[in-house]
# Entry
Amino acid sequence: NESPFVSVVVPVRNFERTIDKTFEYLLNVKYPREKWEIIIADGGSTDKTLDIIKSWQKKYSFIKLVEIPDCPSPAFARNKALEVAKGEFIFFTDGDCAPCEDWIDIMLKAFMSDPKIGIVGGEIYTLRVDPDNLTEAYCEHFKFNMVSPRYGFIKEGYFPPLSDRRPTQIAGHRAYFFVTANVAYRKKAIDTARARFWDHATGEDIDMCIQVMGRGWKLYFAPDAKVDHMHRATFGALCRVWVTYGMAHPQLLRKHATDRLEIVFQAFKKSPVISMPSPIRGFIYLGNFHLMHIFGLLFLIGLITLIFKPYLLWLLILTLVMFLMSFYYLLRFS
# Structure
């Protein structure tokens, strides 16, 4: 019943906007201070981030700083922190995140319930830094980075294990993983899998989960272990995040997926899938969002054509049908 020693790893780089708030929330976490360490892995900050970290270090001896000048990625910084981490369980969050008070206890309770659980993840919500910031409002409205909506609003419990390793299970809607903003690993699971975060700009969270799952360890979702996320301040910064997410997919498919191409009809009940052997590993989704744009584009093409050929009755009818279909899928999407 004794509390195990845990390590909390936080990679940062130029996080002066949010790192103070992260420290405030971390230090409100209810866990014996002699049973944890907070490892901040700084990847070469050029703003006031380092000064802020060192000021907190003066107050709390369990805060450790690992400096990695010219760090290529957050994943690289996490690996450097893993080299010095002493915890039996390794908790990961980010320098723009705010864990709840029971964050560690809830995660540990899941670990203690089953020795084969290698990874536990919690839910991620939005913490608004600026109430008037439209980008933050957008992220909150569309549940950016939330776990449950990604998988059909699932409840607490085990994630499905790896099975066929088809593309959609590696980087698509069947890719069950936890982002590093809110996840904990059993150190034994990391060691037995010889797992490390890869050095690419993003996708390391999916890759790490696949490495651990591939050795038979289970993933468990504990939504009450909540972390609030302070999102990007500008839409341009958010777009750059989306681009890096997309860039990770080909790398994940090359490393882990079987040689198949999958077409997923998300707009239909149960999302039927056509899977075929292919030298190109990947997937194509046809959901409400995609069909809304496809029919909308066809409507615009028909409308422009009618300007030059207004006498074509069949084209007029077809254009109206395209408009109605686009509107129908817009309603379904929203």
Summary: The longest helix spans residues 235-256.
